[in-house]
Write a structure and sequence with these properties.
This is EAL domain-containing protein. It comes from Pseudorhodoferax aquiterrae. By secondary structure, the protein is α/β, with parallel strands linked by helices. An eight-stranded mixed beta barrel has the order 1-2-4-5-6-7-8-9, surrounded by four helices. It starts with a helix and ends with a helix. Helices cover 50% and strands 19% of the residues. Bound molecules: ligand C2E and calcium ion (CA) (3 copies). One calcium ion (CA) binds next to strand 6. One calcium ion binds next to strand 6.
Length: 279
């Protein structure tokens, strides 16, 4: 099934680049995907270096298209952002994640944290803070159980506004992670003034960390910087054991990637949590 949906996806992207009419009809389908219940969440485990710690997960959105199969977020999130649909979709993701975490907690399943991707327009929307605060209060997860992942591109547009938003979100009990750190626009100069909890080292550094001294040097500098600011560090896109070894040496706190697990369906993630808890 994965293979056939992969082909469908390639087909999709060729059409997307080629034909404006097809592209617009896909936007229309994306517009109605929420009410047609075509979205679901998958959960990619984040493992702490201290193996006895509870698992966390990043929440990743999936669009099950009736004919194209699973469309990857790299294809439809940018479309949603361009066509003003991301706020509604992002609201849905966050509400689902809160509800899911609350329900796992209620069932006694030890899930430390769920992290949720937030697009720049969401973070910069005037009512995002108050709606998020209300959600956290409804589900009683004002203890950092939800972490919002923001990319550096959220900061480029209006760093003052973004950083105020981040601070207010932290005050109501959200954690904030800077995602894909080190690629694109690097906010090094004001990293020490940004209110956040976690730094995610981008996969592009992890890819060659065991091979190229320069990748390792950059990752080491990022980790050292984060540590000096008293932030947690997560490495993403960890695929092989050699990478884990280097990252461990550098002092990375949590690992995420195919080496440990692909993103999992809800039930599979629950099984994994139960199994690792019983060890
Ligand atoms: P991201 O935030 O950098 O998420 C990590 C992506 O890397 C995920 O792809 C994940 O499946 C993939 N990944 C994780 N470990 C490995 C690995 O070891 N090797 C490789 N090759 N890939 C790995 P995915 O699920 O396709 O998501 C792609 C991007 O779409 C995400 O990148 C994120 O920017 C965006 N996205 C996903 N869900 C949401 C959402 O709910 N809201 C928003 N705004 N963006 C989302
Ligand atoms: Ca992310
Ligand atoms: Ca990332
Ligand atoms: Ca990335």
């Amino acid at each position: 099934r994965a293979k056939s949906s992969g082909q469908a996806v390639m087909h999709y992207s060729e059409e997307l680049e080629g034909d404006t009419a097809v592209r617009l009809s896909l936007v229309e389908e994306l517009r109605s995907a929420l009410e047609r219940s075509q979205f679901h969440l998958v959960f990619q485990p984040r493992l702490h270096r201290n193996e006895s710690a509870a698992l966390s997960a990043e929440v990743l959105l999936r669009w099950q298209h009736p004919t194209l199969g699973t469309v990857p977020p790299a294809k439809f999130i940018p479309l949603a952002e361009q066509h003003g649909l991301i706020d509604a979709i992002g609201d849905w993701v966050l509400a689902q994640a809160c509800q899911q975490l609350a329900s796992w907690r209620k069932a006694g399943l030890p899930v430390a944290q769920l992290s949720v991707n937030v697009s720049p327009t969401q973070l910069l929307a005037d009512d995002f803070f108050s709606r998020t605060a209300a959600l956290l209060a409804t589900w009683q997860i004002e203890d950092g159980g939800i972490e919002l992942e923001v990319t550096e591109s959220s900061l480029v547009h209006d760093v003052v506004k973004a950083s105020q938003g981040m601070q207010r979100l932290r005050e109501v009990g959200c954690h904030i992670a800077i995602d894909d750190f080190g690629v694109g626009f690097s906010a090094l100069s004001y990293l020490n003034r940004l209110p956040f909890d976690t730094l995610k080292v981008d996969k592009s550094f992890v890819d060659t960390i065991h091979l190229e001294p320069s990748s390792k040097a950059i990752a080491a500098a990022i980790v050292a910087l984060a540590k000096s600011l008293d932030k947690a560090v997560v490495a993403e896109g960890v695929e092989i054991l050699e990478q884990v070894a280097v990252l461990r040496d550098l002092g990375v706190d949590e690992f995420q990637g195919y080496y440990f697990s692909r993103p999992l369906a809800k039930e599979d993630f629950e099984r994994l949590v139960r199994r690792s808890h019983c060890k």
